[in-house]
Amino acid sequence: MRVLALETATTDCSVALRVGEDVFAAAATPGADKPSEQVPGLVRRLLAEAGTRLHRLDAIAFDAGPGAFTGIRIGCGLAQGMALGANLPLVGLCSLRVLAMQAPPGVVLSTLDARMAEIYWGVYRRVGEGADADAQALGDARVEPPAGWVCPAGLDAAIGDGLAVCLPVLDGGSPGAESARLDSLAQERQQQGRGPSAAVRRLLDRLPATVRVVSAQARPRAIDMLPLAMADLRAGLATAPEHASPLYVRDKVALTAAEQLARKAAR
Length: 267
What we know:
The protein is α/β, with parallel strands linked by helices. The protein folds into two domains: 2-96 and 220-243, Nucleotidyltransferase, domain 5, CATH 3.30.420; 104-215, no CATH class. It has six helices and eleven strands. The strands form two sheets. Strands 6, 7, 8, 9, 10 and 11 form a six-stranded mixed sheet that branches. Strands 3-2-1-4-5 form a five-stranded mixed sheet, with helices on both faces. β1 (2-7) and β2 form a beta hairpin.
């Protein structure tokens, strides 16, 4: 199977290509001002390395989100343009599902920093390895403030930069009962060699000690989209380019001025 994958949901833009058993991958230059603008060049580079052309592929996969609004729109638009020109189907993948692929098999909490003091999160069952690997959704992708988040039962692992999003300090900066509870959790984790002794009010510190934290910095990668795209293609889940669309989860781009002032006052 020949599949091209575009990952533009975060600033860690990347591209991957599978041609038979061969896999090619490339990432945007770290710290670039507009990393998604590098994606077309990365695609040309990988096609050249693989000795193939766009119209010879079976499908194009793109990260539909959630993630950076501009990034997922650009990724969807690029995928649609290439697919229309080469008469190829598209496979839109959820960024949280893609991220879960970096965790070992089991039930995985996948999280991303949604900005505006919120997180995107979802729970997935990771199965298989290599080209047969998959991440099966156990519910819908969600967005909410860390303070309102309740840890799902039965987790084996957690991953993603959403784990490091800090909870807001309430009551004019006083710790309160919630921070005291987090202190207790953090001390328990520190005693088990799993984290600092002082609570920093992260989502990470709300996880039970039995949950393995794979990485609190991880973000989706294009190379992990390849087995997911192939699984969805085999399942008949590809779509025509004109029907592809981003998965926003949240339809709000930024806080209003009043909301920003209220949030500052609560700190």
